[in-house]
Amino acid sequence: MRTGSEPTTARSALRMRLWLSLWGLAWAVFGLTAFTLTGRPGWAAACGVLVVLVLVDLAVIVHRIHQGPHFQPGRSVPPYEPDHGGRRPYGH
């Protein structure tokens, strides 16, 4: 059920994003190298753009991880209670 508060209370699995970005970076660098060596400049350029995008994403992820538990909560941080618009929460 949608409560309407998802964008303000949504959390991202930053550690998973970090590992997936690293995996993508490895493949993009591999593609860049392979296409450069085989003489495919269009595909090499596409992989080069992808490398830059992945590096920017990695910088954002690392920055948010370093910001602490507000952006990367651990098991000790409870989830946010959604806003029920001045009404009592369901089940209470």
TrEMBL record:
Q: Which UniProt keywords apply?
A: Membrane, Transmembrane, Transmembrane helix
InterPro entries assigned to the protein according to its UniProt record, in alphabetical order = DUF6343
Q: Which residues cross the membrane?
A: 18-37, 43-62
Q: Name one Pfam family in it.
A: DUF6343
Where are the annotated segments for Disordered? Answer: 69-92
Q: What is this protein called?
A: DUF6343 family protein
Source organism per UniProt:
Streptomyces brevispora
Source lineage? Bacteria, Bacillati, Actinomycetota, Actinomycetes, Kitasatosporales
